Amino acid sequence: MSYCQGKSKATVKITWSKGDKESVTSEYPAVDVFAELSYSYRITYHHDVVANSNNFVDSYDSFKDLGVLEEPISYQLVSSSDKKIVDLVVTSGNPTKTTTIVMARNSSYGSNFSNLQLVQSELYTEVNVVDQKGTVKILRPGNATWIVTCDDDCKPGEIKCEHPGYPGFCCIPCQATASKINNLAARVGR
Fold it and tell me: Is the pTM of this model over 0.85?
């Protein structure tokens, strides 16, 4: 969605569900703001080079770390019949493509791989703010929401009041302020 067309400044205030907050200010509006979701994944497997010797756990923040640029449609851990090779085969994208990622190679001894699992874990949101000069991308754990204000305007549902401190005004919520005024008026009118 496009914001602040014909204005001199746009400020995007982003809040993630985990509590992180970030602001992006553009001096080149209009701005478009959109989000892309991804998940982190944990790859776990039991790996015995010599029977009952080792237990390896491997993890990645997302499939992007593995060289897959789009979220997976399907994935499969594949162990060769001689137990010397384990690959992660990922199908992703539109049109679909298959990527094979080497997970383990052991040509000397042979290996026993068991309990192969790929577990989806934490949600990440990448918020993209696009203006005439380029794109700012901010990635954090959790979901994200944002509010866009233009120039020095207040967000919807707020009113602008002069204030002696920087930036010379403040924004107060209309509904909460109206409720307080009505409550005070009812008390004074008794």
Answer: no
Q: Are 45 and 12 members of one domain?
A: yes
φ/ψ of residue 116, rounded to 5 = -75, 125
Same domain membership, residue 177 and residue 95:
no
* Residues spanned by the domain of 90: 1-153
Overall number of domains in the chain: 2
**For position 172, what pLDDT does the model report?**
86
Q: What does the alpha-carbon distance between residue 15 and residue 2 come to, in Å, rounded to a whole number?
A: 19
Q: Is the pLDDT of residue 14 over 90?
A: yes
CA 92 to chain centre: 19
Dihedral sign, CA of 124, 29, 172, 159? negative
Specify whether 128 is located in the same domain as 171.
no
Alpha-carbon distance of 37 to 56, in angstroms, equals 29
Same domain membership, residue 173 and residue 125: no
DSSP element (H, E) containing 117: strand 112-131
Based on the fold, state whether residues 17 and 106 are members of the same structural domain. yes
User: Which residue in this structure is represented by tokens 């754990």?
Assistant: 141
**DSSP-based three-state secondary structure for 26:** strand
The verdict on 18 and 53 lying in the same domain is yes
Q: Distance (Å, rounded) from C-alpha 1 to C-alpha 12?
A: 12
For 128-140, what is the mean pLDDT?
93
- Confidence at 127, pLDDT banded by 50, 70, 90: very high
